[in-house]
Automatic annotation (TrEMBL):
It holds the Pfam family Methyltransf_24. Transmembrane segments: none annotated. This is Methyltransferase. It comes from Teichococcus deserti. InterPro entries: SAM-dependent_MTases_sf.
Length: 233
C-alpha cells in the first residue's frame, strides 16, 4: 500500500504488474521477501538510449524483457516508464541459470563467479529479486523464471500482449531466431521488438532472416536491432 493510501485509509489501486502476478502465480511473489544480497546491477548494453527512446515513443502498457541476467535492463525500462509517467509493467523472462559463456571457468573476467553457485545451483534469481526490492520496483516487475520457449507458451495461454519486447537471451543463430518468432506472436499490433547483440554473427543472421521472413524493415542501432509490427488494417 502506498503512503498516501495508508494515510487516507483507502485501498491502494492494483498496478498492472500486481494484476499480472495474480494471473501467473495467484499471489504477490514479493510478499514477505527480504533482500538477501546487496544491489548488483552488472549488465551489458542495459542502459542503451534506444531502449529509453522506444519507451517514450511506444508508451507501452506491458514490456517483456527476455534474458535479464541481474535486472539492469529491467530497472532501466522501469526508470523510463517512471520518467514518462507510464504505469506499465515489465515481465522479466529468464531461467536465471546463466548462459553457456557464463559457465566458462577459463574466462579472464571470472564471470563464472557471478553465477553465485550454491551446491551447483546458480543464485541469480535471488540476486535479481534482491535488486528489484532494493530499487523499490516490486509493483512494476514480474519475474518469470522459465526458458523463453516455456514463457512464450505460458504468456500466450494467458493472452498477454506486449507493446515492447526486448530479446536478449541467446547469442546463437537458432535460439535467437526461435525467440524472435515466438515473441513476435506476443507483440501487439503497432508494437516494437528490439533485440541486443547485433555484432554477434549468429544474432545478425537471425535478425536479418526474421526481418525478411515477416517482410519488415530491420533497423540497426548497434548493438540493438529493431522491428516494428504494423497496425492491423
Amino acid at each position: 500500500m502506498s503512503d498516501a493510501a495508508a494515510a487516507t485509509g483507502t485501498p491502494a489501486q492494483e498496478t498492472p504488474a500486481q494484476a499480472l502476478m495474480q494471473r501467473l502465480f495467484g499471489e504477490d511473489l514479493y510478499a514477505g521477501f527480504t533482500p538477501e544480497l546487496p544491489q548488483d546491477l552488472q549488465g551489458w548494453n542495459s542502459t542503451h538510449p534506444t531502449l529509453a527512446r522506444l519507451v517514450q515513443e511506444v508508451k507501452p502498457k506491458t514490456i517483456i524483457d527476455v534474458g535479464v541476467w541481474k535486472g539492469a535492463s529491467v530497472a532501466f525500462f522501469c526508470k523510463a516508464l517512471q520518467k514518462n509517467a507510464l504505469p506499465g509493467a515489465v515481465i522479466a523472462v529468464d531461467t536465471f541459470l546463466g548462459s553457456p559463456e557464463h559457465w566458462n571457468r577459463e574466462r579472464q573476467d571470472n564471470i563464472f563467479a557471478s553465477l553465485r553457485l550454491r551446491h551447483g545451483m546458480p543464485g541469480l534469481y535471488w540476486q535479481f529479486l534482491s535488486n528489484m526490492a532494493h530499487l523499490g520496483l516490486q509493483d512494476r516487475v514480474v519475474p518469470l523464471a522459465q526458458t523463453s520457449e516455456n514463457a512464450a507458451v505460458i504468456l500466450q495461454r494467458l493472452r498477454v500482449k506486449a507493446e515492447l519486447i526486448h530479446i536478449d537471451a541467446a547469442h546463437e543463430y537458432e535460439p535467437v531466431l526461435r525467440d524472435a518468432r515466438r515473441f513476435w506472436a506476443l507483440l501487439a499490433p503497432g508494437g516494437v521488438l528490439v533485440g541486443d547483440d547485433f555484432p554477434w554473427p549468429g544474432v545478425a543472421k537471425a535478425a536479418q532472416e526474421f526481418a525478411a521472413e515477416i517482410g519488415q524493415e530491420l533497423v540497426v542501432e548497434n548493438p540493438k536491432w529493431i522491428l516494428r509490427k504494423p497496425l492491423k488494417r
